[in-house]
Amino acid sequence: MNDQTLPPEYLEFAEELADAAARVTLTYFRLPLEVENKEAERFDPVTLADKGAERAMRALIGERFPGHGVLGEEEENIAGEEPWTWVLDPVDGTRSFISGIPLWGTLIALNDGTRPVLGMMDQPFTRERFVGDGSSASLNGRPIQTRACGKLTDATLMVTSPEHFQQPPYSDLFDKLAKEVRLVRYSGDCYAYCMLALGLVDVVLDPGLKPYDIQALMPIIQGAGGVVTRWDGGDAQNGGDVIACGDPRLHARILELMGAE
Question: Signal sequence: where (predicted)?
Answer without folding.
Answer: none
